[in-house]
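Q: What would this chain look like folded?
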Amino acid sequence: MQVVARDGESIEELLSRFKRGMVRSGIMRELKKHRFYVGPSEQRRMKEKEAARKLKRRRQKAAERRHRSGSRGR
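A: My prediction, written as structure tokens:
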């Protein structure tokens, strides 16, 4: 990740732009993910837990949409 200073840009603004770029590119997430060794069984468990969380969230949103659309015709 490279950030070039703009004319009249302070160090704080430059650093802030750099940090934003790091987060957007996913480098920080990847760095945190590889900070410690995670065994295969733990990776599988984490993946299953994440899938369950996403499914639950999807179901909640679908139920919320059904609830909202049901009250319109009355």
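The CA atoms of residues 27 and 33 lie 10 Å apart.
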